[in-house]
Specification:
2 copies of one chain form a homodimer. Chain A is α+β, with helices and mostly antiparallel strands. Chain A is built from 17 helices and 18 strands. Chain A is globular and about 70 Å long. Chain A starts with 9 loop residues before the first helix and ends in a 13-residue tail after the last helix. At the A-B interface, strand 9, helix 8, strand 11, helix 9 and helix 11 of A face strand 9, helix 8, strand 11, helix 9 and helix 11 of B.
């Protein structure tokens, strides 16, 4: 068991250089780059950064690291919000960004095969040429490998699902170097245990993903965006849940509080009214989207929604969603030099309005600036809390506050994480939420598949 | 390890009686009923049938059976097509049908909590009173516990997903009696390993499910059915794949060959033209379904589809889908005294037409009557092959033929099972398809969670 920091010997580093065709680096800047992510968790440097180019190279590296008991943390874009890529116990950061080939796009099968280092924006640029898109869109331009490992979701999950629903097959390397293939290029599969979904969201603790087969969709004939303002946060959230219950087909439904709107106005040079706001998107036929938008308009009016605007103009639609995707960075840009801690609760639909108000009440008692936004159709929302990275006591204090919020959400039947994952910060929350017996089953699986605990130690479990 | 038949001693049977409030039976008729399913696999009797009434009773039974190394096979409706419920190594059949309470229906959360013995038709009758429905619809009136354990799917999977997509949370008893809870009552979840989806489709080999939380949907404002005929099987299947690629929102899209139509005509007193046929269903607003049906009509005409008929009449729509759900029994009814072997391949979308024709060619070389139908929008189809249960050599022969078909489907990048599962008949196919290294990971998980191999031994693995 790895329970203290591992620094590599020069012999080990030289040996790793024989195993990969890419770099093995101990350059300080490179180590720094691989010791941080988008969370506010203080950085931890790896002992070395290793850049493989193929599944075989990853296999050879893992075989060696397993024998030598060297921790291995897979690294993609470094856009995790839960410290996933931080090498808490040293060892190597396995940087997969040079494995960034789109192997094949198969429009007739509505699928794409690619290496884990491909970024989602680059993927969608390529797919657009075939009239296709990949639906999962976390705010960051993450890598697909990272998105699979953390079970990412995004603004379109309400319509198209999360990574769990859109990864058909995986090639992965187990801790001992064994290469496995899970899943098939089929839309349905009932053959044996669902190893694909066991690996998705396992946060790099069970295997390193080296190839993915993803389901893609045809770009809809028509896409329309709509925006509507509410007097209060509770009204906006209640309207969203009413729309979900109505069964109207929405492709996106996002809530932003007044502070978020203020931040995105400044960051993206917009002039949206600074009120609690819902952003919508509709996908379908021209008549279909118009009808859906009209149905939504009727519902939001019952919740005092005002200034309902909708557009099928592509430029306006893109600008709106770009602003939404920038909301996290817009929040940080409003507070130069600061970092943000993000909560990630999801609750049963009927509890969403209560949950958001409870979080707001707790945060209002403290001095830290915050904003709230959410994938409200999925009853998943984030509080972004601004903290000063030069004051560790602030981070500690904010962690206590977010833990208080998380515990309230769990009491309401919710989860501590709808899409960001456990990382190192929610290990206790996972036990509170899921119960020790189920977490113990997870741990047994981990111990069986990675007996030396080399894969991302210190994440998901203590 | 259990590797030969286990028959219970009278002391063991008496002890089991102290552990459950329901019956413990060794009545011959009861043993017979629990020794067969809807497959053509020859029956195998359990040594006793045990009927628990609660999670605690299941836990006590498993704890005892684990200590005594008694095999435990969970039993629901007995509607498996792969011999899942057959106690190949004796021991007990754990009949969960008395755990059939719908615990709560929560329309505001779009979810329902229930015990595993609830049947899907009964569930939908209750849900309809709340304007809701549960989407997964295998042909049989299976129990929800059985459907979760086998990862069932159905005609609406193209729109609403399979059990994997619609089970939010599970209470399950592990082999040693430990009770775990997985998942949450939320639409999104990223907290730790996805044990929910590990259990779904594990065919009773990892745990016994004792409670389920399911996602439900509001009954759509409008539902329309359509039907269209094709000159050849290949035309019909090609039309279906073109419709999927077009992105038109279909709720159901099923193919039936001329023989299936003949059988359902006889069984359900219909007079459909005996030609290769597609059945469709559309869900949405009145205008939306009309528009979707019109778009489908335009596409099918390109593939020589004729006699396109559509209806929003509720009686006609129900009658059509009832006939589709009866197709399996209609096929058997056409051959009194016979049983059917069903294939269950799914292939990449672009291979579907080839795959169906390949299967038809192989079957045409043999004397056994067969028909073909499929969830073609998901590129999953079934060949029903009629066999005489009194002639074991016929079953053996048919098994060789289906194995030949399965191997061809795997070569095309397909799977041996889209929705029926592995059971005892596709153990070798699972290895061919997934590769020994991945199957070995499955086996390691099984050995870790059920070291005495008491849970449904002989299924999924040898």
């Amino acid at each position: 068991m790895i329970n203290k920091r591992v620094d590599l010997t020069s012999v080990q580093i030289e040996h790793l250089k024989t195993l990969v065709s890419g770099a093995v680096s101990t350059n300080e800047t490179v180590l720094d780059q691989h010791g941080r992510d988008e969370s506010a968790i203080p950085p931890v440097r790896p002992s070395a950064v290793v850049m493989p180019h193929s599944t075989d190279e990853v296999s050879n590296v893992l075989k060696y690291c397993n024998a030598e008991k060297i921790p291995v943390v897979a690294f993609g874009a470094g856009s995790s919000l839960e410290g996933h890529v931080l090498p808490l116990f040293g060892g190597i950061s396995l940087d997969l960004t040079q494995m960034n080939k789109i192997i094949e796009i198969r429009p007739d099968d509505l699928l794409v095969r690619l290496e884990p280092g491909v970024h989602r924006v680059a993927l969608n640029e390529k797919l657009a040429g075939h009239g296709l898109f990949f639906s999962v869109d976390p705010g960051a331009d993450a890598t697909l490998g990272g998105m699979a490992s953390t079970g990412a979701a995004g603004t379109t999950t309400v319509r198209y699902g999360s990574m769990r629903d859109n990864v058909l097959a995986i090639t992965a390397v187990m801790a001992d170097g064994t290469v496995i293939r899970t899943g098939r290029e089929t839309r349905k599969l009932s053959a044996g245990y669902d190893l694909t979904r066991l690996l998705i969201g396992s946060e790099g603790t069970l295997a390193v993903i080296t190839e993915l087969t993803l389901r893609v969709f045809g770009i809809p004939e028509k896409m329309a965006a709509a925006i509507v303002r509410f007097p209060t946060l509770a009204d906006g959230v209640s309207a969203a849940t009413a729309i979900v219950r109505s069964g109207i087909s929405i492709a996106r439904c996002e809530f932003l509080d007044a502070k978020c709107i203020k931040n995105v106005n400044a960051h993206d040079d917009l002039n949206l009214s600074e009120m609690p706001t819902l952003f919508f998107e509709f996908h379908g036929s021209p008549q279909g989207v118009a009808e859906d938008a009209q149905s939504v308009k009727e519902i939001v009016e019952e919740f005092d929604g005002s200034d309902f605007e909708w557009t099928t103009d592509e430029g306006a639609r893109r600008k709106l969603w770009q602003a939404r995707h920038n909301a996290y960075w817009a929040g940080i840009a409003a507070h130069p030099g600061k970092r943000a801690v993000s909560t990630d609760a999801a609750v049963p639909l009927s509890k969403l309005s209560d949950a958001v108000q409870t979080a707001e009440q707790i945060l209002s008692k403290h001095p830290y600036p915050f904003s709230i936004l959410g994938h409200v159709a999925d009853a998943n929302f984030h509080c972004f809390i601004v903290t000063d990275p030069t004051k560790p006591e602030e981070l500690e204090d904010v962690r206590h506050i977010t833990h208080e919020i998380t515990m309230k959400m769990i009491e309401m039947g919710g989860t501590c994480t709808g899409e960001h994952g456990i990382g190192s910060g929610k290990i206790q929350a996972l036990i509170e939420e899921t119960g020790a017996p189920a977490v113990n089953i997870m741990r047994l699986i981990k111990q069986t598949l990675d007996p030396n605990n080399i894969l991302n130690p210190g994440k998901v479990f203590n």
